[in-house]
Hints:
Two copies of one chain form a homodimer.
Chain A: E1 9-12, H1 21-32, H2 41-62, H3 70-84, H4 91-98, H5 110-117, E2 122-127, H6 131-141, E3 149-150, H7 161-170, E4 178-182, H8 185-193, E5 197-200, E6 223-224, H9 228-236
Parallel strand pairs in A: 1-2, 1-4, 2-3, 4-5, 5-6
Amino acid sequence: MSVVAPLRALLFDVFGTVVDWRGGVVREARSIATVDDSFDWGDLADRWRTEGYLVPIGEIVGGTRDYEDVEVLLGRTLARLVGEAGLRVATDDLERLAGAWRRLDPWPDAVRGLTRLKQRFVVGPLSNGSFALLTEMAKRAGLPWDCIISTELFGSYKPDPATYRGAVALLGLQPGEVILVAAHRGDLRAAAACGLRTAYVPRPLEWGPAGPSPEPPDAEVDVVAADFEELAERLEAGDPTP
Amino acid sequence: MSVVAPLRALLFDVFGTVVDWRGGVVREARSIATVDDSFDWGDLADRWRTEGYLVPIGEIVGGTRDYEDVEVLLGRTLARLVGEAGLRVATDDLERLAGAWRRLDPWPDAVRGLTRLKQRFVVGPLSNGSFALLTEMAKRAGLPWDCIISTELFGSYKPDPATYRGAVALLGLQPGEVILVAAHRGDLRAAAACGLRTAYVPRPLEWGPAGPSPEPPDAEVDVVAADFEELAERLEAGDPTP
């Protein structure tokens, strides 16, 4: 007889899963920086995300780079990318643009889905965004989190196992009582390795309309849903079942 | 010319300031434990708060006692007090009663006042309750926090200066941009010593109808308000002014 603990809490990856970082960065860039209309801000957003976030965080988790605040990493990379592109952006505007990650909009289903999921479960982010960034983003975007969990609280970044374990411990729960919701397989695999359940919500527009198709879900994923409203339906219907 | 930073965030003491711990403990005790109706649960609640919380936390902050989780401290003291009172309470019921601190009701003005304050400021607890306790309490009681800050995040308890400084740093703010709201002078004095602004909201019923009168406010307190709705009025009107 297997005994499976009931699901108590949902933790969400944020950048790409809850909010549209590419669309938000492009929108802010166009409103802040007065440059040639033909400039490809989408391409700059993609490089910013990759070179200012994904790569250095991977190096930090891999132990080949010292920990730094995510907004420090992003700010430094933005300055470099803008310089390399030969853009002339005032320092004040550059600082404002660096803060765009605090002002990203949620995917259209996110607030409705989270509001529904919050009726039955504890909902919170588990994000590499800083505590201040996530708090400010939630307030502006109306994300109805029960609490804010940033990997900053553990002095590390996902996919370090310490971040998943730390989040579960903060909630006073067992790993099997918590499900990680993410649009990224690597995040879900790392959570599963720590005993959390997993929900895959692909976001086909994360890298823009011309971006790559989402990866197919791993067979081990507990729930797959097209958006947060379908996720709420699935969880209310009893998925994941033992 | 003095330049005073605008107020950005309000941090709240919780036990006694936001929620009525005594009333909640007595209510839960009466519903859980089947003992003689004449038993004075209010007195037990007072002793539980003092001996299982105030005294050991003071010792931990003072450096004469090792850090332990607040619910471990409370649970151990409850078992002792129940034993000393000669009460026969089943182990399951004792465990349920120990969890009463997660199910305390807010003072009548608290949810309305916080909802109003949340329109203009970041609002969050800064409490010696654990992160899990504060998250569960907020969900049950409908406290509309923007984030949960427990002193657990800093491995210490108020009034350790590290807790006030740590909370301000997590929010990415300067101390002068944050106000601590509390019904307790010691808490406010410790926050002020770290550069935070302070708001005193006395709670005359914290220790029950026969309890001591609230302490008069220190002259240094920035704002005094009778409840959270008056606090919202005062802050919307521009208090504290430079």
